Structure formats: structure tokens, C-alpha cells
Amino acid sequence: MGKEKILVIGCKTTMDDTCIGCSRCMVGFNRRAGEFERYDQEAELMGIMGCGGCPGVAVVPRMAFMKLWNSKLGENPTKVHIAPCLATHCEYKDTIVKKIKAKAGCEVIEGTHPFLPENIFAE
Predict the structure, then answer these.
(1) What are phi and psi of 48, to 5 degrees?
(2) Taking a C-beta distance cutoff of 8 angstroms, is the pair 52, 12 a contact?
(3) pTM here?
(4) Which residues constitute the domain of residue 102?
(5) What is the pLDDT of residues 3-53, one digit of tens each?
(6) Domain tally for the chain?
(7) Mean pLDDT in the chain?
(8) Span 69-89, mean pLDDT?
(9) CA distances to 54, 56, 86 from 97, in Å
(10) Residue 120 domain-assigned (yes or no)
(11) Contact 7, 66 (CB under 8 A)
């Protein structure tokens, strides 16, 4: 098998308004921490994509656009990770993850980084 190409799908609202820059997912990938421990250094993070917004009706079309835009480059995900903002905090999680698993055509893993704060103000 060739190099792993990783796509992270998260909550649009959280990605836009709370987790600015999705830095914890990227740091987790770069450090191979959390669910990213399974990958060797050859694996690539090919994208971080929002679900499209509540209640997740746009996630499948967004995945199709990802494939369309990247297929001529030979860049399609071999693994999809569901970010913590979607996997643990979304009221539509079950429906969205079910749609992703039905259409991804590759393994879907719930989780990315382990850097979830226990509380806000503690250091």
C-alpha cells in the first residue's frame, strides 16, 4: 500500500468560531499523537474540512467536491478522521458520521488529537 493520505472532517461551527486554525488537529498529526499514532512519518495530512453546518446535510456533497478537486492531482484520502469537535460535541454526530462512513470509500476513524482541555482556566 502507498502513502496514507489523511482527511480530517470537523464541525463547521467549531472550526470557524472556536478552534481557530484547527491547530490542535494539525499539531496532533505532526506529533503523531492520539489517533494519529498509527501513521508513520510518510503519511500526509491532505485536508481539514468542515461538515458544512448543522444538521450535516452538506457533508456528502463536500466530500464529493474534495474528490473532484483533488482526483486529477492523484490526491484522495485513504483514511478519514472525525475531529473531536464533531465526534464528541455535535448533536448530529451519529447522523453525520453514518453518512461519512457510508460514502467515504475508506476507513473512517473517530478521533484525532488527545489535547482536550479538562477545564478552561487551569494550566
Answers:
(1) -125, 120
(2) yes
(3) 0.91
(4) 5-50+58-110
(5) 999 999 999 988 888 877 788 999 999 999 999 999 999 999 999 999 999
(6) 1
(7) 91
(8) 92
(9) 13, 9, 9
(10) no
(11) yes
